[in-house]
Amino acid sequence: MPQGPRGVLATLRGVGPQRFERRLERLVEGTFSKAFRSGLQPVEIARKLVREIDAGRTLGVHGTVVANDFTVGISPRDYDRFESFDDVLARELADQAREHARDEGYRFVGPVEVRLVEDPELGTGTCSIEARIVEGALGLVGSLVLPDGRRIPLADETVTIGRVPDSTIPIEDARVSRHHAEVKPATEGFVLRDVGSMNGTLVNGVSVKEHLLQDGDEIGVGSTSLRFEAS
Q1: Is the Cβ–Cβ distance between 66 and 107 less than 8 Å?
Q2: Which of 63, 83, 149, 163 has the most CB atoms around it within 10 Å of its CB?
Q3: Cβ atoms within 10 Å of 1's Cβ, excluding its own
Q4: How far apart are CA 105 and CA 231, in angstroms?
């Protein structure tokens, strides 16, 4: 299956991997340049991850479905270099997979997971990627991205938003009600519902009582903005 125009341009220019590398540099700061002067480069893993996604795509009932579960094998020497921030690297690789899926119009059927494992059979500077399609609960996938970049996965349980500490997403803001809104799975996807808040819930600047979330929707709760990502 040929790549779409955006995918071709991204591959030719390396736009996606370049953004990935810049984000990673900001997150690990000075450690990045010291650790990655030689050996396997994170951007090489990102490029290979994208190629594995493209190579394993398959046509599903509701569009093109791609792998969402990745095991990245790296050599013992490279693993030692990555160990102090392997969780950051895994998270950024997962975001790279989501970004590529959005650019290409691909669908996941489960949460995106990336694991880095040590493989003694690999030489320094090389990596292997095992990519699988792993279906999540109800075959739905999505997440809410918080202002600080943290991601709240959506599955078969209701996600609550409010001022009470035991909310899934607690928000300390006088404009936010104790029990403000919730996100629940539905047949068509995930539904945002205002649960009788005093100041209302916005989606893309418009007040809503109930709304079927679409990829990229911005949810406004008090002064806090959350982004829904279907990928």
Answers
A1: yes
A2: 163
A3: 8
A4: 10
- Cα–Cα distances (Å) from 172 to 17, 47, 145, 177, 178, in that order, read 36, 40, 17, 10, 9
Give tens-digit pLDDT for 177-202. Answer: 999 999 999 888 899 999 999 999 99
Q: Report how far residue 102's alpha carbon sits from residue 97's, in angstroms, rounded to the nearest whole number.
A: 9
**Distance in angstroms (rounded) separating the CA atoms of residues 17 and 32:** 15
Smallest Cα–Cα separation from 114: which of 93, 83, 141? 93
Mean residue pLDDT across the chain: 84
Of 109 and 51, more confident: 51
Whole-model pTM: value is 0.71
Q: What is the pLDDT of residue 24?
A: 60
C-alpha to C-alpha distances, 113 to 26, 120, 130, 201, 205, nearest whole angstrom: 22, 22, 12, 30, 32
Listed in sequence order, the DSSP H helices in the chain are: 5-13, 15-28, 30-35, 42-55, 76-82, 86-104
State the residue for tokens 């494992």: 117
Residue 8: pLDDT above 80? no
Phi, psi of 111 (to 5 degrees): -60, 150
User: Distance from CA of residue 52 to its chain's centroid?
Assistant: 17
